[in-house]
Amino acid sequence: MDLEKHPQKPVAQKPVAPAEPPAIRASDADRDRIADILREALAEGRLDAEEHAERIDSVYRAKTVAELEPLVRDLPATGADGRPITPTSSSSSSSSPYGYGPEDPDAQAENLVAIFSSSTRRGRWRIGSKTNAFALFGNIEIDLTEALFGQRTTVINATSIFGNVEITVPQNISLRGNGTGIFGNFEVVTLEAEEQDAPTVVVNGYSVFGNVEAKPKRGKFIADLRNQLRKHLGH
Q1: Could you please report the per-residue DSSP string of 115-140?
Q2: pTM (2 decimals)?
Q3: Which of 108, 157, 158, 206 gives a 20 to 30 Å CA spacing to 213?
Q4: What is the per-residue pLDDT for 84?
């Protein structure tokens, strides 16, 4: 066979699909930014208490920025500070005067139950991202004035039936609430912290022939969360 008269046809090569860029890991500041947007949405009535709690749980389980974006896709695209949602560098988060510990996505909610009894949580302790308090003909006292906050947003779900749930917080944090009193009282004294990075406590729930109350304690302040947390963790 004469190869000069019958040259071989070049083999067409299939185009190689470009590699997908690696997912961007979410920083603590990214999670806090999303939590701010959710907090504002709760205050404005865009989210109810249950939706807010579910999304906050997802915020602190998220490992990448892509996991955070769907949580606020149906909300205004800026946070309380008016800045758009963009990944932030670790240097910006380290400048915060508040030092939060590492998030534990597998942490379970703490349950406080008082049935014909009483339950108290006070002193120097580290509160998790979610606490459930249930009082039936009983009394629950949650004192956060000396607590260490391991995260930016703390949610307390309080239910009181012929009982009483009292929550006390320092004066220099943000306090929000969303609940109902049925032949009872549900009262949350709203606070707005001056520091943007200060902890936020959200109290959700209801009372039936009972009382749920959350308020600040005069003269109680969190002066330096970063140093307190480091001492508590032994660093």
Answers
A1: ESSEEEE-SS-EE-SEEEEEEESSEE
A2: 0.55
A3: 108
A4: 46
CA–CA separation, 110 vs 157, rounded Å? 10
Q: Give the tens place of pLDDT for each residue, 141-164.
A: 999 998 888 788 899 999 999 999
- Ordered strands of the 211-216 beta sheet: 118-121, 139-143, 164-169, 211-216, 185-188
Measured in degrees and rounded to the nearest 5, phi and psi for residue 191 equal -125, 150
Is the pLDDT confidence value at 92 over 50?
Answer: no
Round the CA-based radius of gyration of the chain to a whole number and report it.
Answer: 24
Q: Select from 71, 69, 70, 80 the least CA-distant residue to 43.
A: 80
pLDDT tens figures, 20-74: 667 788 887 788 788 878 877 877 778 887 788 788 888 878 888 888 888 988 8
| CA gap 25, 34 in Å, rounded | 14
What is the DSSP secondary structure assignment for residue 224, as one 8-state letter? -
Continuous segment of H or E residues that includes residue 43: helix 28-44
| DSSP for residue 70 | G
Q: Name the nearest CA neighbour of 36 among 204, 192, 205.
A: 192
Q: Which residues in 191-202 are b (16+ Cβ under 10 Å) and which e? A: bebeeebbbbbb
* Token reading at 231: 């001492």
pLDDT-derived band at 11 (thresholds 50, 70, 90) equals low
Q: Which pLDDT score, from 0 to 100, does residue 90 have?
A: 40
- Token representation of residue 39: 């907090």
